[in-house]
Amino acid sequence: MLPRSHLIILFAALLCSAAALPERGPLPLEKPQTLEKPKALEKPETAEKTTPAEAVPGKTDGGTDAAKDKDKDKDKDKDKDKDKDKDKDKKSEAAPDIKPDVKKTEPEKKAEPVLTIEPEIAADHATCLADLKALGASFKEVERIDDGQGCGIDKPILLHTVLPGVALAPEGTMRCETALELARWTKDSVLPAAKAALPDAGPLTTVNQASSYVCRLRNNAATGKISEHARGNAVDIASFTFKGGKTIVIEPRDEDSTLSGAFQRAVTAAGCLYFETVLDPGSDEAHEDHLHFDVLERKNGYRYCR
């Protein structure tokens, strides 16, 4: 048994604790606390975010970091690709006119026609020479002309006189066909018109030419088509000289009411009966001081007379 003094102390302690209890109602129960799961058993947050393709066997947190690094590398690669695309765009914008120029010049070089001297049929040439002699023209045959670039005459002649007593000054090199039409025009049109319009001037003695064969482009231009003069098909008439000393110069005469004006207009109009092309001072500035005649053949027998 406990000593009596110990019992008295125990009893006094019981009385004190009973006095501290509330007067009504039961004692409140403490709210149960939920047990925390051990961290080791919790599912890692990265496991939910990591896709099967990103998961690396045998790695935990290190695998997620590697995946993030791969994503960053992919982003960098995308940025590099974008920068390359921008550089390409800048280069294409910086030189937009270079490629079109190459495309334009190449087809032009390929499309350039090869100019050659047209051969003349021997039989036709012989007939032309015979007809020219029959009209009384004087000339001589000269060697074939080939100046390159399509300039030249296969069977050229050097014409001295157009008709008996009517000189060509200076002498002109041309094809026989050109000389023949010049002689016919002079005989059938110029002589009758001069006799009617200029009876006091006397017989025609000289047809003054400004150009026969010459290797050049049309109207002496720097670019364009080759002139018919370069093929021996053309002759330019600058004036007419008569035995009495009078000279009729070719000039703009559309409003000239004199007999000289009538003479020029008459022989110009008649020129289209013999030549396929007739250009006078009224056609353009390049022909203000001469008549251009040529025998260029056109489709369906078309003639250009202005």
TrEMBL record:
Q: Does the keyword DNA-binding apply?
A: no
Report residue spans for region: Disordered.
24-111
Question: Which ranges carry the Extensin-like C-terminal domain?
Answer: 127-306
UniProt keyword terms in alphabetical order: Signal
Give a yes or no for keyword Signal in this entry: yes
Identify the stretch annotated as signal peptide in this record: 1-22
Q: Where is the composition biased (Basic and acidic residues)?
A: 33-48, 66-111
Entries under InterPro entries matching the protein: Extensin-like_C
List the Pfam families hit by this protein, alphabetically.
Extensin-like_C
Instruction: From the Swiss-Prot or TrEMBL record, give the protein name.
Output: Extensin
Could you tell me which species this protein originates from? Pararhizobium antarcticum
